[in-house]
Amino acid sequence: TRNLVLVLGDQLSDRLQTFAEFDRKQDKVFMAEVTGESRYVWSSKMRTTLFLVAMRRFAENLRGKGIDVLYRKLDDSKRFDSIGSALVTELEEGNWQKVLVTQPGEYRLIAEIESACEEAGVELVILEDDSFYCNASRFDEYAKGKKQLRMEYFYREMRREHSILMEDGEPAGGKWNFDSSNRKSFGKGGPEALFPRKRFKPGKVLEDVTRSMDTVFADHPGFSEDFDWPTTREEALEALSDFIDNNLAQFGAHQDAMWNGEPFLNHSLISSSLNLKLIDAREAVDAALEAYEKGRAPIESVEGFVRQILGWREYVRGIYWRYMPDYLDRNELGATNTLPKFYWDGSTDMSCMRDVITQTIKHGYAHHIQRLMVTGLYALLRGVDPKEVHGWYLAVYIDAVEWVELPNTLGMSQYADGGVMASKPYVASGKYIDKMSNYCSSCRYDPSLRSGKDACPFTVLYWDFLDRHKKILQSNSRMTMQLRNLDRLDAKELEKVRSQARELKSTK
Ligand code: FAD
Ligand code: SF4
User: Fold this and answer.
1) Global confidence as pTM
2) Hey, is 5 helix, strand or coil?
3) Ligand 2 atom, smallest distance to 434 CA
4) What ipTM does the predicted assembly reach?
5) For residue 95, which of 54, 291, 409, 465 sits 20 to 30 Å off, Cα-Cα?
6) Nearest-CA neighbor of 229 among 284, 263, 272, 278?
7) 117 Cα: distance to centroid of ligand 1 (angstroms)
8) 29 CA to middle of ligand 2, Å?
9) What separation in angstroms does the CA of 87 have from each of 30, 71, 487?
10) Which domains does the chain have, with CATH numbers?
11) The pLDDT of residue 79 is above 90
C-alpha cells in the first residue's frame, strides 16, 4: 500500500487535490468519527448529526466509485476520542508510505495530525485547500504593509482578480457595493409570501446516526430527529438552485431584517454545504452571476450575495490563518462574565433572544444579523468572556467550523481582537432590533426605555457598555456620536442605568 488519504468531516469532496493522483489499486481513504470533536465544545445534536450523516454518505459515495474507505464509526467497539489517536492506530496497523490531507479548517488539528504521523513514523503531506478563491499567501500579499485591513478593499481586489461583476474594468451597476440597499426592514406587514425551503431527509442513515448520538452524546443540547439539511453534493446543489430560483431576487433588500417565527426568510441556507465542501464557493457565485446575466435577479441581490462569499467568507479565512493561534486568546475589552443559562434553551422573556435561541437549538441555524445583533450583541453588552461566546457559536450552528466561526464571533461580534475584523464594536440599543424586526411588539420590555421595570435589557446594557468602556472607545473616531449621547445623560439617570445593568449582568 502507498498513500492514506485522510478526509476530515469538513472535507467531503473528491474534487480536492488529495484525490488528484489517487490510485484505486494502492491508496485508501481514512475517515473517523471521534468523540472529542463533539466534546471539546458542547456540540449540539443538530451539528454533530450533520457531520456524521454527511461523512457516512460521502464514504458510501466513494465506495460506489471503487475507492477503498477505512471508516471508524463512533459506536464501533473501539472508540477514539481524537483524530490523532484514530490515525496513529490506523497507521500502526498498516504499511503506509505517506498520509495526504487537505489543510484542516482548524489550527489545532494540524498539530494533532502532525504529531500522529510523527509518532507512527509516516510522512505527512498537507495540501492546499483549493476550494477557496484566496489562499493564505495571497491573503498575506494583500495584507502586507497595511496598517488596517478592511474587507471592502480585499473584496474589490478579489472582484478584479477573478473578473466577477466587472464590466469594462468597472464594477457592474456602477458601484462596488450595494450595502446601503441591503438594510431594509419588512415594515409592519412582514415579509412577502416565502417559498418553503427544501428539506432533505436522509432516511436510514439518519436513524443510525441518531442511535449513535443517543448512546454517546445523550446529554448534548438540541435534537437530531427533525434533521433536514443537505448532506450530499446532489442535495447541496439542489438547495443552491432552489435559492437561486426562489429567493435570490428578494435576498438583497432584506438581508438584515428579522421576523418572529421566520428563521429562514430569503437566505440561501448553504453555509453548511459550503463549509463541508459539498459545493464550492465558485459554484455558488457562478450560479448567482448567471441569474444576474439572465435578468432574473437585481444587482443589489447578486452583489450582496457575492460580497458575502467572495468578500466576507474569504476575508475571515485570511484573518484566521494570519492571526492564529494567538487570536484565540484575544480579549481587548477584558470581558470575564459568563453566558446566562438561557443561551442553551431560550427560556427568557426577551422576545428577540427567545426567538433566535429557540430556532438555533431547533434548526442549528440563524441568519447573520440574528447572530451579530441579537445573541452576539447581548453577550458583548453583558461582558461575556469571548472564549465562552466562541464555544457557544461553535457548538450550536450547523455551519460552525473554527476558521469561519472564530473571526466572526471573537472579532466581528465581540470586538475582542481590538478592531482587526471590525472598525468599531457593533453596539446598539434595543431600538436597532425594533427597527429591523417585529420582536419588540410582542415583548414585555420597551426598547426605548433605559431604566425602570419595563426597560429593554439591550438598551440598559448598551448605555452601561458605553459608560464602562468610555476610555477605550474614545480613541475611536467612529464612536464619537454614540459617546456624545452618553455625555448627555444626567448623573442620576446614569446611576440608575449602572445599577440596573449590574443586576442584569449578574443573572445566571
Ligand atoms: P446567507 O445570508 O445566504 O449568505 C450567503 C453565504 O455567504 C453564506 O452561506 C456564507 O457562506 C457566506 N457568508 C455570509 N456572511 C458571512 C460571514 N460573516 N463570514 C463568512 N461567510 C459569510 N458562518 C459560517 O459559515 N460558520 C460559522 O460558524 C459562522 N459563525 C458566525 C458567528 C457569528 C457571531 C456571526 C456574526 C456570523 C457567523 N457566520 C458564520 C456568518 C454568517 O452568519 C453565516 O455564514 C450565515 O448566516 C449562514 O447562513 P446562509 O447560508 O443562509 O447565508
Ligand atoms: Fe428584544 Fe428589547 Fe425588543 Fe424585547 S424590547 S424584543 S428585549 S430588543
Assistant:
1) 0.97
2) strand
3) 3
4) 0.99
5) 54
6) 272
7) 33
8) 50
9) 8, 11, 59
10) 3-127 (3.40.50.620), 136-195+247-323 (1.25.40.80), 341-506 (1.10.579.10)
11) no
